[in-house]
Amino acid sequence: MQENTPAIAEPLSADRQAPDKTIGELFVDNPRMSARHVNIWYGDKQAIDDVSLDIGASQVIAFIGPSGCGKSTFLRCLNRMNDGIDICRTEGDIQLDGQDIYDSSIDVVPLRARVGMVFQKPNPFPKSIYDNIAYGPRIHGMASNRAELDEIVEASLSRAGLWEEVRDRLDQPGTGLSGGQQQRLCIARTIAVSPEVILMDEPCSALDPIATARIEELIHELRESYTIVIVTHSMQQAARVSDRTAYFHLGKLVEVGETRQIFTNPSHELTKDYITGRFG
Amino acid sequence: MQENTHISSIFEEDLTSLTRMTLELGALAAERLDQILRALADLNSVDLPALVDSDGQLDALEAAIHEKGFEVIALRGPQADDLRRVLVTLKNASALERIGDHIRNTAKRMLAVGEIDTNLLPVDQLSRMGSKVADMLAEVMQALENQDSAVALSLRNQDVEVDAWHTVIYREMITAMSEQDDMLGACVHYLFIAKNIERIGDHITGIAEQIYFLDTGQMPDDERPKADKSSQLADLD
Amino acid sequence: MTEPTKTMLPPDEAARRVEASLARRRKAERRFHRMGLAGVLIALTFLVILFASIFSRGIPGFFQYYVELEVQLEAARLDPQGNTSVESLYAGDARGVLRAALFDILQPSGRSARRDAGKILSAGAEQRLRKMIVADPALLDTTQTIRFAVDEDIDSFLRGFILRDTPEADRRMNERMIGFVDQLQAEDRIHYQLSDYLFFGSASRNAEMAGILGALTGSILTLFICLLVSFPIGVASAIYLEEIAPKNRITELIEININNLAAVPSVVFGILGLAIFINLFGLPRSIPLVGGLVLALMTLPTIIISSRAAIRAVPPSIKDAALGIGASRIQVIFHHVLPLAMPGMLTGTIIGMAQALGETAPLLMIGMVAFIVDIPGSVTDPGTVLPVQIFMWADFAERMFVQKTSAAIIILLAFLIVMNAAAVWLRKKLERRW
């Protein structure tokens, strides 16, 4: 497997320290996922330092922070994508619906059907549009015949706002679509296996503003049925799209709160500096 | 008005609710101005103390508009027309709230004056001045709803009449105060009432200018006609 | 503000200097361009010379001289037992029938004259006659006009390699034989036509009967075994090394060794094959099975290296996407990585096969140099391969062998070009754009 070891940012001057205890509302009632005292190491370097956080059900939570702060690393441990990186070591308790996902009895394969992922660069399979969507349900045995599979494909594409555009060309390659359409295809592919949580790692950074706006509107529509965690390097996007925002800094979780409050009146110095652009 | 709706539906909702709240605030102010006018004709026909106490309603609504506007700027990042709309809404809410304050002040002073010999006092002129301002308020709220910058511009000119009335009342009161000492207190109250109504007219003009700004992106550049010469009156005898 | 210690060139001065240096740069590039062109032209020239010499020597190898005879196919003489069985035909006198036909024309007088006349026909003529009868018994008791190959010496004479001027004692043909040949030519019975022996004949000491069919079959069988063994093992090894093996010292060691194996001289694999397959396992020598196994050993590093490169070329984003959907590692490999890597793997395999086709040294080591006349029917029948056949023919002195050797080289080259073309076509057809 190829290694994707991210760069760890240089530490700031001594007078700006992250707090020992995260500020804000970390915990919610009836969370979909919860993390307690999570630490992640890449070899000797610590990427995530004692992070505890709840992911609320049917909500959108955004992870923001400067490059190398660990937000993507933390996101990937929620569906155990970090398992594929040999030098990555995860400690702590992460639960999905009350079940520890790092327990030795848990099989990663069904976990990833329940916690789906959309990546930064749209990555449709080099297959037809239909087969792209149908792949997940096929390997998980979710449809017993072709008719059911057709239904799942149509429902997923409709939910992703792509059905009308592609209904007449389902057998054409998925890679022939535009960037924004490809990303919506990837979202439809993720939805097709009926996940509970959708993780998005900077899903719009490769797209133009209009495609981005459409995907943000899609996220807004999807939040009723799914729990969404989105990592973004655009604060404006976090402001537009999320209900809660978590600010990461050098592996620590500095502040969590309602998005409205974080962007109008953040509590911690570091959060304020980052959001107002006074960072560094 | 922009023809297309925003891709983000919540953005669209936010902008709509800002406009709706402003219209609500305007309706509240207009209704209270109406009460003042009726009280001018017949003091007992209106519950003035209740009017004074319920001013908090407008303050609360203005605070809500302010909060919402703040949120829209922080979270949605409005640009161009959207940005002007938000800023204009905040300014107009402020103006409408000030109008509410002036109404409250007027009501307090009317209570203080009480039943007075209406022959001496320019109740008639005040009523006509007040009616004019009430009409202007109705017109400007209509212009706000329809985003009619032409109507808005014409409103600026109508304020001349209000200013003229104010100058007239001012002269009369000064004359009355110099001739009849025992009416001094009442006259001063009436002066202030006239001033309040004149200020309401100015605020309405301000709202009209904001409507023009929202539509065109620029403030109207010609000086609006002013006819209030009261501040320049030196010869008071 | 402190004085800057280093200054930049103002734009107009910089532009002037660039302009000034332009001439020098262009000259250098023109020189490079010309050198490259010269190199290409020299290479092309050598290529043209090479092909010209091969073709000029090889094309005649595709043709042979035949003599046309009217043969009376007497059933009684040819098929004494009357059942057209192989035994009956061998018991019969095909040779006599042919000689009768020939003497009919030449009318040789005396035993030595008849002996000389008999030498004109190829030794394989009678076998050909027998085969014809077996194929079509209705021919018996008819008179047919048949063309038979002439003997290799006559053929050489007709091509001009044996000269009339040479003193008779130094020639392989005497005057009488030349006279017979002249007579046949005068009667327009000598024909120069495409050789059916080259393609359908097998190994033979007689040049006119020599053909490549046996060697070709042996090559095909050997390559088949090689492909059968090396492709699955090579692909599986590549998958293991790229996708499954942990990144530790042992894996590194395996990788280094495989890369080095690709550079090992092929004859070493022959020695290895000799030691293991023949001495240790006791397999017979000179069979395509062993030859295929040896070639497989040799081709494996090539396949592994090219397959690994093909696997590495699969974008990791595709694998991430599949993993994110909940595919297991094995499903990711077989549903996504392999289909995308397959064009590269196939191309590498075909190139490896093309190399194996031309290998001689390791096969010599395991004994596929034997003189085998029969065409191998299975992988366990003794056989030889095309390059080895060429190698053996090159040893023989007869002029005709020289031409047939060149012809066989042309056939081998044609095969290699076809295989490489197939690799290119396959790559183009299967290449997906993502």
Which secondary structure elements does this structure contain, and how are they paired or packed?
The complex is a heterotrimer of chains A (280), B (237) and C (434).
Chain A: E1 23-24, E2 31-42, E3 45-56, E4 60-64, H1 71-77, E5 88-96, E6 99-100, H2 108-114, E7 115-118, H3 129-139, H4 146-159, H5 163-166, H6 179-191, E8 197-201, H7 209-222, E9 227-231, H8 235-241, E10 244-249, E11 252-258, H9 259-264, H10 269-276
Parallel strand pairs in A: 1-11, 4-9, 4-10, 7-8, 8-9
Antiparallel strand pairs in A: 2-3, 2-5, 5-6, 10-11
Chain B: H1 9-41, H2 48-53, H3 56-76, H4 80-113, H5 123-146, H6 149-179, H7 184-216
Chain C: H1 11-58, E1 63-72, H2 75-78, H3 86-91, H4 94-106, H5 111-118, H6 125-135, E2 143-149, H7 152-159, H8 175-186, E3 190-194, H9 196-200, H10 213-244, H11 249-261, H12 266-280, H13 288-312, H14 316-325, H15 329-357, H16 361-365, H17 386-395, H18 399-430
Antiparallel strand pairs in C: 1-2, 1-3
Structural features, described:
The complex is a heterotrimer of chains A (280), B (237) and C (434). Chain A is α/β, with parallel strands linked by helices and 280 residues long. Helix content of chain A is 32%, strand content 25%. In chain A, helix 3 (129-139) crosses helix 4 and helix 4 crosses helix 6. Chain A is globular and about 55 Å long. Chain A starts with 22 loop residues before the first strand and ends with a helix. Mean pLDDT of chain A is 90; it is low at 1-5. With 434 residues, chain C is mostly helical. In chain C, helix 11 (249-261) packs across helix 13 (288-312) and helix 17 (386-395) runs antiparallel to helix 18 (399-430). Chain C starts with 10 loop residues before the first helix and ends with a helix. Chains in contact: A-B, A-C. The A-C interface holds A 1-2, 4, 79, 81, 84, 86, 109-113, 116-119, 121, 123-126, 135-136, 139-140, 175, 186, 189-190, 193 and C 243, 246-247, 315-328, 331, 335-336, 340, 432-434.
Strand order of the largest sheet of chain C: 2-1-3
Overall pLDDT level of chain C: 86
Distance between the termini of chain B: 54 Å
What is Rg of chain C?
32 Å
Largest sheet properties of chain B: none
**Global outline of chain B:** elongated
Number of strands of chain C: 3
Tally the beta strands of chain B: 0
Overall pLDDT level of chain B: 87
Helices and strands of chain C, in N-to-C order? HEHHHHHEHHEHHHHHHHHHH
